[in-house]
Amino acid sequence: MEQNDIAVGLDIGTTKIVAMIGRKNEYGKVEIIGIGKSKSLGVHRGVVNNITQTIQSIQQAIQEAEADSGLKISEVVVGIAGQHIRSLQHSDYITRPNPEEVIDADDIHTLCNQVHKLVMLPGEEIIHVLPQEFKVDGQAEIKEPIGMYGGRLEANFHVVVGQVSSIRNIGRCVKSAGLELSAVTLEPLASANAVLSQEEKEAGVALIDIGGGTTDLAIFKDGIIRHTAVIPFGGNVITEDIKEGCSIIEKQAELLKIKFGSAWPGENKDNEIVSIPGLRGREPKEITLKNLSKIIHARVVEIIEQVYLEIKNYGHDEQKKKLIAGLVLTGGGAQLKHLKQLAEYITGMDTRIGYPNEHLAGTNDAETTSPVYATAVGLVMNSLEKGKTRFQEEAVLSDKSPVESTEETGVESGETEQEETSKKVARKSIFDKWAEKFKDFLDNAE
């Protein structure tokens, strides 16, 4: 099978690295044909801090996925998160040289290109430029300006910014593991694609992806991404607290959290006790489940309150910006018992646990649809979207100026199928150019 028909997502997380191979079946659903996962050793809070260990972990995950699928992997799409990610709103406009002609994809490229020239803080780089709404000659709230007449085209953008060094380090790890890096995607965006339905994005929803080292947030309203944030703590701080609070080793703390942990202290009776074997002939420790859930509860409340603060910053309290569909929790941390109830209690918003089966074929096994794999599934989906358009447009496009990645935009806004394909045709080329530019950038960085 050609690498063109399949896509590989590489989710470099703080606790695990997942390589996932997928392809589109004849019904347009995503089929997962191989999965490999390894313990992530060189990543802290979503940022690589040990290159050698990360390379080994990536290779291990890739080999496992190759063995599982019987395919050889050559290029991957990587997710990026970490505490260095920030997002900002920006509006920009262009005056078109010939208002007699209708607006086409080139005009949108020019506009996005202009945003990429924004001056960032030293050491920062723009990862995504996502147009939200367009204005043509002052007429506001246009979702799709292509085909309209107008002299002045302006747009509001959601710009995602990250640290150059962190992005380079990830690129370096992927290259050293013997792989090509075909794209970098923001992890909350990938998870959102895998977990959220179009209706939820229209109604307004916040996706919370609780990982080991970071908690990612993506907010959608009217089908468009409105806000992204990465909060620099996740499930690992809960384990740390259990370790400290109960004076046990990390492995035991992690097991306790998974097997007996609950985010709601009222659940446990006072007499429920777990006995933990002592180290090297020491007495076993007895821990009450009530105490355990009190420790977990304190930490989880902190995480949810941070997320809620971000949601308020976005403007959830305003009537027009209300998130009607509430919260969707995903990622490994979403498997904690009674987390949904606690989130509803703190925020007063409807909450569900998000499984990445929104666009998956029914044939995939249950393991793939665990919240743990939301980001990996999303990366595979993003990559397949791009791959599909690569062939449609090769004939159509000549040399365009390189624009950095606007690849998510088409998928986020609720457009009809034809509009989406016509837009993607144009967009893919931008993306190709950007990927090449990005590869050069990494080559020179060596």
TrEMBL record:
Protein's membrane topology: Peripheral membrane protein
Coiled-coil parts of chain: none
Domain of life: Bacteria
Cellular compartment(s): Cell membrane
Keyword annotations from UniProtKB, A to Z: Cell cycle, Cell division, Cell membrane, Membrane
GO biological processes: cell division
SMART domains to which the protein is assigned, alphabetical: FtsA (SM00842)
Transmembrane intervals: none
Biased composition (Acidic residues): 405-419
Pfam families hit by this protein: FtsA, SHS2_FTSA
Alphabetized PANTHER family for the sequence: CELL DIVISION PROTEIN FTSA, CELL DIVISION PROTEIN FTSA-RELATED
NCBIfam families in UniProt: ftsA
This protein's name: Cell division protein FtsA
Provenance organism: Gramella jeungdoensis
